[in-house]
Structure formats: C-alpha cells, structure tokens
C-alpha cells in the first residue's frame, strides 16, 4: 500500500470521527424547588409542551430536600431523590406519546406534562349515573349527552341504587351493571355510529335515555 493511499485512509478516518454518528441529543433543563415549583424548559428557556421524538439530555437541578423531579412516560421512568439536592443528568430517548413530570410528595400541585410527536387524542370521559331515585343519565362535563362523535370513550358508571342497574346497548355494545349491586365502574368503549340506548332493566320504560353517535 502506497503512502498516498495510507494518507487517504487516515483522512477518511478523521472525517468519520468528526461526523456525529446520529443526530445530537437535545438539551432540556428541569428544576424543582426551592418553593413549590417544578419546571421543564428547552434550550431557549421556553416551557416544554411538545417535542419531536429523539434523544435528549435532561439536566435536572433539584434545589430542595423536600421535593424531587420524577419524569414518566413511554420507555422512561426516572426520578431524583427527595432528600438530595444537586444536579443530575439523564440521557433519555423520547418516543411518540404523553409524558408527565411531578414532585412525588406534592404530585397534585407540582406537576407538568408534554407530548412527543403526535399521539392519538385521549379518550373523552363520560359519566353515567343511575339512582338513587328513579333517575338515569349520561353526561359529559356535567351536561347531558345527546350526540357524540364516533371514537374511544371512557364511561365512568356510577350505579347508586340496589334497585337499578345501568344497561347500555348500541352498535357492538351491550354492557350492564348488576341490579342488586352498587358501585363505580370504568368502561373503555369504542362507540360507532348509531343510536345508543340506556336504561335500568327493572324499570326499563321509565328509567331510560338515549344518545346518537355520528360517524
Ligand atoms: Cu414537592
């Protein structure tokens, strides 16, 4: 092998060392404390609400021995110690989905969330209530439901009577609670276009209702 060829190989090796193998990880900055504050910001100091999928380096500054920073989402579950103060670096790969961060001891007030990529919308929550008197309803945000768009729903069923049940029927759906039982139940439903009827079976003529689902 001639000298010129060796030099060419050496030059090629240097270039391949200099070129990053993959896209560089982006930096994010997390803080928690000293007061009841928790933040996650990008390198422009903007609060993180939406990110592209990819590799990230998260620099966490835990400024309090009463708080921690806990990040959770698809493929990620990392947290700082509550008692420890200081800086931590995490290298994480974020994929399409929904991520949340909290301070564990104060998760109801110290919290945040962001999406990565374009995850499917969260299912809408509906509430079905039957009893304690001869009443039955399906509501969304406190309002009676009369029509819905087809899709995924979470139906929280509150059966508040031992004389009634909640029975929902419609295209592809036939579910009920027991008459004698009471309780709160969570049903994950896919509602397709059509008419849905609900009733309490022991008083199906009086305690009933319906809504439409459009495609
Ligand atoms: Cu806290």
The helix tally amounts to 1
Which sheet architecture does the biggest sheet show?
5 strands, mixed
Structural class: mainly beta
Provide the helix percentage.
under 10%
Q: What is the arithmetic mean of pLDDT?
A: 92
Ions and ligands: copper (II) ion
| Global shape | elongated
How much of the polypeptide forms β-strand, as a percent range? over 45%
H-E order? HEEEEEEEEEEEEEEEEEEE
Strand order of the largest sheet: 3-9-8-5-6
Structure overview:
This protein has 215 residues and is mostly beta strands. The protein is built from one helix and 19 strands. The strands form four sheets. The protein has a five-stranded mixed β-sheet with strand order 3-9-8-5-6, with no helix packed on it. Strands 12-11-10-14-17 form a five-stranded mixed β-sheet, with no helix packed on it. β8 and β9 (111-116) form a beta hairpin. The longest helix is centred in the first third of the chain and has 16 residues, at 3-18. It binds copper (II) ion. Copper (II) ion is lined by residues 66-67, 103, 105-106, 110.
Features:
215 residues, 5-stranded mixed sheet, 1 helix, binds copper (II) ion
What are the SSEs and their pairings?
Layout: H1 3-18, E1 26-32, E2 38-42, E3 50-51, E4 54-62, E5 70-73, E6 76-79, E7 86-94, E8 97-102, E9 111-116, E10 124-130, E11 136-140, E12 143-144, E13 147-149, E14 151-159, E15 167-170, E16 173-176, E17 183-191, E18 194-199, E19 208-214
Parallel strand pairs: 1-4, 3-9, 10-14, 13-19
Antiparallel strand pairs: 1-2, 4-7, 5-6, 5-8, 8-9, 10-11, 11-12, 14-17, 15-16, 15-18, 18-19
The structure holds copper (II) ion.
């Amino acid at each position: 092998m001639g000298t010129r060829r060796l030099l060419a190989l050496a030059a090629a090796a240097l270039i391949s060392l200099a070129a990053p193998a993959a896209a560089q990880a982006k930096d994010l900055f997390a803080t928690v404390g000293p007061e009841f504050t928790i933040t996650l910001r990008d390198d422009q100091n903007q609060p993180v609400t939406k990110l592209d999928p990819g590799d990230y380096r998260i620099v966490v500054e835990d400024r309090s021995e009463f708080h921690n920073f806990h990040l959770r989402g698809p493929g990620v579950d990392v947290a700082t110690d509550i008692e420890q103060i200081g800086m931590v670096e995490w290298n994480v790969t974020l994929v399409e989905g929904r991520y949340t961060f909290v301070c564990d001891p104060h998760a109801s007030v110290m919290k945040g969330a962001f999406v990565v990529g374009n995850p499917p919308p969260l299912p809408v929550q509906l509430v079905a209530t039957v009893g304690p008197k001869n009443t039955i309803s399906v509501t969304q945000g406190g309002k009676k439901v009369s029509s819905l768009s087809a899709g995924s729903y979470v139906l929280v069923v509150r059966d508040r009577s031992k004389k009634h049940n909640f029975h929902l029927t419609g295209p592809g759906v036939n579910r009920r609670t027991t008459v004698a039982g009471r309780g709160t139940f969570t049903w994950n439903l896919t509602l397709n276009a059509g008419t849905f009827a609900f009733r309490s079976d022991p008083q199906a003529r009086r305690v009933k209702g319906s809504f439409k689902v459009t495609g």
